[in-house]
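Lay summary. Proteins are chains of building blocks that fold into shapes, and those shapes determine what they do. In this project we predict the shape from the chain. Here is one chain we studied, written as its sequence of building blocks.
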Amino acid sequence: MSEYQEKAIQFLELFSAGNLQGLGDLLAEDFSLSGPLYQCTSKQQYLEILRNNPPEQCDFEVNRIIKDSDEVCLFYRLNKNQNAFVISQWFKFKNNKIVETELVFYNQPI
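And here is the predicted shape, written in a compact code that computers can read:
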């Protein structure tokens, strides 16, 4: 597994544990997020969103990982409160940090 693949999975581990300090360490200052619930254009803004709406404890199962140069896409099943969501999350890396991520999912449990 490549370093970027490991960092993408580490992002999910930290997110699902609610570890904002650890998440912040993985992100570039100019980090951006695009998803169905939130959009942001900086690491500080993203962490503020999470402080105001903390992630709930959950677990996940990675189904597929696709890597291309400095990009990684994870397809995973997120299990939260006895509900499951199928998610695709794309990560872009720059200088060994996550600089961009995009989430695609239907906001209803399967």
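What the prediction tells us: Residues 3-105 form a domain with the Nuclear Transport Factor 2; Chain: A, fold (CATH 3.10.450.50).
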